[in-house]
Amino acid sequence: MANSSDMSGRPKEGAYKTEARFTLAEAPGLRVRQLSLAAGQCVPWHYHSEITDTFFCMKGPMCVKTLDPDTEFVLEAGETVAVPAGRSHFAAGVDLQACQFIIVQGVGTYDYVPVEK
């Protein structure tokens, strides 16, 4: 991986490893991506200042964890959960097994703010 941080020194979105990552659609203030996580991979703890992340599980089960409040959502294929702007969250397959999901990110300016957990 070339440069894994932006001008602020924070890790860039995408600085974590995934099995596959595709942008399906993108417009100002909105992005739709498909991510595949291999066993042991995760989307690390982070939050977004403006956008909501809506997860749609394609292959699971997968879990989406949030802080404040501390919650764990377990999604099977076809199930969704939305994480509002400002809420720290983490995503992975249950027990760090493989999973695949679509994520709709919007509406607003995209950022990726890592959180130490």
Features:
Jelly Rolls, mainly beta, about 120 residues, globular, 5-stranded antiparallel sheet, single chain, disordered N terminus
What's this model, at a glance?
This protein is mainly beta and about 120 residues long.
Describe the protein in words:
The structure is a single chain. With 117 residues, this protein is mainly beta. The protein has one domain (20-109): Jelly Rolls. Helices cover 0% and strands 50% of the residues. Strand 1 and strand 2 (30-37) form a beta hairpin. The radius of gyration is 13 Å and the shape is globular. The strands form 2 sheets. A 5-stranded antiparallel β-sheet has the order 1-2-9-4-7, with no helix packed on it.
Layout of strands and helices, then pairs:
Layout: E1 20-27, E2 30-37, E3 42-47, E4 52-59, E5 62-66, E6 71-75, E7 80-83, E8 89-93, E9 99-106, E10 113-114
- Measured between the Cα atoms of the first and last residue, the distance is 23 Å
Total separate domains: 1
Helix content: under 10%
- Integer average pLDDT: 89
Number of strands: 10
> What is the structural class?
mainly beta
Radius of gyration from the alpha-carbon trace, in angstroms: 13 Å
Question: Main β-sheet, in a few words?
Answer: 5 strands, antiparallel
Per DSSP, what share of the residues sits in E-state strands of 2 or more residues?
over 45%
The CATH class is Mainly Beta
CATH architecture: Sandwich
Q: What is the N-to-C order of secondary-structure elements (H for helix, E for strand)?
A: EEEEEEEEEE
Q: Please tally the helical runs, counting DSSP H or I stretches of 4 or more residues.
A: 0
Per CATH, the superfamily is Jelly Rolls
Task: Give the overall form.
Answer: globular
Strand order of the largest sheet: 1-2-9-4-7
Q: List unreliable stretches of 5+ residues.
A: 1-11
Fold-level CATH name? Jelly Rolls
